[in-house]
Amino acid sequence: MATSVVVKDKLAAPAPVEQIVQAVFSVCGSEEVAAAAIEAVSKVEGSEFIGQFQEYISADKRPQFPDSLLNAGGCVALIDCDRDHELALQTMERLQQIFSNNLKLVAITSKTDTEFLMKAMRAGCDDVIHRPVDKGLLESALRRFQKGHVAAAFRSQGTGKVISFYGVKGGVGTTTMAVHLAMHLVKKHHKKVLLIDHKHELGHVALHLGLKESVYYFDELLRNAERLDAELLDGFVTRHGSGLEVIPSPDTCAPVQEGTAEAIARVMSYLRTRYDFILVDSSLEYTDSFTPITAASDEVTLICTPDVAALRDLVRRTEHLGLVNGFHEKLKIVINRSTSDDAVKSEDIVNAVRLPISVSIPNNYLGLVRALNEGEPVSLAQRGSFTLAISQWAERLAYVPSATMTSAKPKKRFLFGF
């Protein structure tokens, strides 16, 4: 019995799910192609058929790609070439530009002439399957591609780890935590670290580090996500004398310009290949970018202070964010400015949010104000409970290996476009 497939213009953007080792989708595919793909992926553990695009993809007609594709270990596009051969070839070239080395292309066609096959190969096609579609050949191709995707993931992802920082309210020391953790990772553990000031205006990372105004900012990097490479990134990065690399925020008033989920996922994926740690000092006010940044993060750090106002906000934030799939597994609660005389005790915080406190940072308010005024973070050589707590935090991160990609269990449901 043939499988009925709903064909639409765009793939649906599902809720965050476990990473797929190999995401398979079709472009302009018939029911025959979709049915063959569904049967083939059911026999290849870790592969999943996401759905299909109804129209060919070009520079003028580019859909919004869902997280299931952007976050997959590898992607396979089944391009049905029989509707329009030239548009199919353009689609192959466009998808190669978008997904780069993370994509395998399969042409589904009735044509057997050498000229078309040569054009398909030049467009980046990895395999050709002639009609009628042989399910065995397709399964064999998916198994071969998946081995390559897994090997490439181990080569490219390395130990790159993304940690995002959010203050439950203003003034809790989010930037201070991100800056000092970054410095410890660089100077004590000799890690290659990028610190991103993800504030649309007047961020304080550069002030903490005594850096001069930069010409380029993270929002601009996101707008150039498709052409991101080592040379482009090098022009965006500002280097601190410690070896820490920084993408600062504008030091002038500017409108909010949030990047797309696709751009954020693409940029973070690339940065993982260049750095041991990517620390993102962001804000809960950025509603559009919060989900893609946390989806790309290995840890999501909520900074709170031990007072009633901050605790109220922390409880509300965790209640709301608890509705996001996978959030609690990434969430780390950090209490800043902790003292023995706090009005809100650690056990009160744990009972209120039903989550453990990951790190408790002793109060060092005057020392940190002095450091900010001087444009130089608190020295690692300075003895004290503040430095010790940051050091222990950095040590935990530096010596916990990053999670490696594992095969996702095949899903029974299929997500088709809208």
The chain-level mean pLDDT equals 84
- What Rg is obtained from the alpha carbons, in whole angstroms? 24 Å
Low-confidence stretches: 1-17, 401-418
What letter string, H or E per element, gives the SSE order? EHEHEHEHEHEHEHHHEEHEHEHHEHEHH
Question: What's the overall geometry?
Answer: elongated
Structural class determined from secondary elements: alpha/beta
* Residue share in helix: 25-40%
The proportion of residues in beta strands is 15-25%
Largest sheet: 8 strands, mixed
Oligomeric composition of the shown chains = single chain
Question: Widest sheet: strand order?
Answer: 8-9-7-10-6-11-12-13
Number of helices: 16
| First and last CA, distance | 25 Å
> What is the number of E strands?
13
Q: How would you describe this structure in keywords?
A:
single chain, 418 residues, eight-stranded mixed sheet, 17% strand, disordered N terminus, disordered C terminus
Describe it for me?
- This protein is an alpha/beta fold.
- It is 40% helix and 17% strand.
- It has helices spanning 31-41, 67-70, 85-99, 114-122, 135-157, 174-187, 205-209, 218-223, 230-236, 261-272, 287-296, 308-321, 327-330, 346-353, 365-374, 385-398, and strands at residues 22-27, 47-53, 75-80, 103-109, 127-130, 161-167, 193-197, 238-239, 245-247, 277-281, 299-304, 331-338, 357-362.
- An eight-stranded mixed β-sheet has the order 8-9-7-10-6-11-12-13, with helices on both faces.
- The protein starts with 21 loop residues before the first strand and ends in a 20-residue tail after the last helix.
